[in-house]
Write a structure and sequence with these properties.
Length: about 350
């Protein structure tokens, strides 16, 4: 049974390499996608896995320090990504050196090479083609895959605030953690809700003189730990229940302030920067040729194995409506990786 299984998986991989089909493509190389790749390697190192996305342009890489991963007291996000990429490189080297004798190397030339590869490109389309999937990158390159894991992030919600387009990159940013340090000692504003707004405010309070959070809901649905920290921050002020359709970013060449209506009264706050921390629904445009099920809120529907309604396509992380915590997303990605390999092995 084991010998058969090994033979089958080696044979399948050999055949796939011959016709250029990748075993598993993972879209997204953040914590979710990287965890899926590691899971796939651990389950069957003979399979070829390709990740798409930019590991250093992920939330983890940009977000500062993470202190809630079990067993890791505190780690700088980008260092954590570097560690994971190092681990993947170690697996790749371990695999290549497992072909010890030169005779064996010649016999398995097709099998040699990295098991996990990362392409810093975006996928724009996925189609079904007989048993496999055809993926098209934004550059127009075509890739065939036996199975696909969707593990990308939610896009920024753009266009909800007046003045956004005019002041983008002129004091208006969509990432408090990425650009906050540029406004050291200044007065800034975050427009957003829940953990995204809270995390941004907790970051900005360290650099900025005053941080005002403009929140559309009547409360911030955030971790109590964050709330306690925010309440203890004298330079953070939260304004609840603000109608975002009446908010306007104002300025000359750069942002100088923000207008909004509070308790029926028009107000203007002088700020040097505005950070919009609002997330949109998942962008599912790459899946438009597939009849994949989404729920009422616009998130991909998956079962407990992270299978979508299209056999061979798995989805994990925030695009399935999962809570946005590193440990959850890693577990979800890992589960998708294991189940995608089970699917490929069964084929
Ligand atoms: C400020 C802040 C602080 C946080 N602090 C904590 C914390 O302390 N503890 C905690 O547990 N969690 C925390 N989180 C949550 C958590 O760190 C992240 O949200 C999580 O790591 C996101 O992982 P991800 O894989 O879903 O997305 P990302 O890391 O954003 O990765 C998405 C990937 O998808 C790729 N991609 C997107 N579209 C495409 C496409 N079309 N084709 C190919 N690739 C694509 C991108 O290039 C990227 O590689 C925090 C989040 C924020 C914003």
């Amino acid at each position: 049974m084991t010998v058969n299984f090994i033979f089958n998986s080696v044979f399948t991989t050999y055949m796939n390499k011959k016709d250029g089909t990748i075993d598993l493509v993972i879209i997204g190389s953040g914590l979710t996608g990287l965890s899926a790749a590691i899971a796939a390697y651990s389950k069957n190192p003979d399979l070829k896995v390709k990740l798409f996305g930019i590991p250093y342009n992920t939330i983890t890489a940009k977000k500062g320090t993470i202190d809630t991963i079990p067993g890791i007291e505190s780690v700088v996000g980008v260092d954590y990504i570097v560690q994971i990429l190092g681990q993947i490189e170690k697996f790749n080297n371990e695999y290549i050196s497992s072909f010890s004798s030169s005779e064996e190397q010649n016999d398995n030339l097709e099998m040699k090479g990295k098991r996990i590869e990362i392409e810093e490109e975006k996928i724009s389309k996925i189609k079904k083609e007989e048993e496999n999937f055809v993926l098209v990158t934004e550059e127009g390159e075509t890739i065939r895959a036996k199975a696909v894991i969707l593990a990308y992030d939610l896009p920024e919600l753009k266009g909800a605030i007046k003045g956004e387009e005019e002041f983008e990159s002129q004091g208006l940013s969509y990432c408090a953690v990425c650009d906050g340090a540029l406004f050291r000692g200044k007065k800034v504003c975050i427009i957003g809700k829940d953990n995204f707004a809270a995390r941004g405010a907790l970051f900005l309070r360290k650099y900025c003189r005053k941080v005002t959070v403009i929140c559309p809901s009547s409360t911030l649905d955030i971790d109590k730990r964050f709330m306690k920290k925010l309440e203890k921050s004298p330079n953070v002020k939260i304004k609840y229940g603000i109608d975002l359709s009446k908010v306007e970013v104002v300025g000359t060449q750069f942002v100088t302030g923000i207008k909004f209506v509070e308790d029926g009264e028009e107000k203007e706050l002088s700020v040097n920067a505005v950070f919009i921390e609002l997330k949109d629904k998942p962008d599912l445009s790459m899946l438009k040729e597939l009849d994949i099920k989404i729920n009422e809120e616009g998130f991909l529907v998956t079962n407990s194995k992270k299978e979508t309604t299209i056999p061979g396509i798995f989805a994990a992380g925030v695009i399935t409506g999962e809570e946005d915590y590193c440990a959850i997303l890693m577990g979800e990605g890992y589960k998708a990786g294991i189940n995608a390999v089970n699917y490929i092995n069964k084929k």
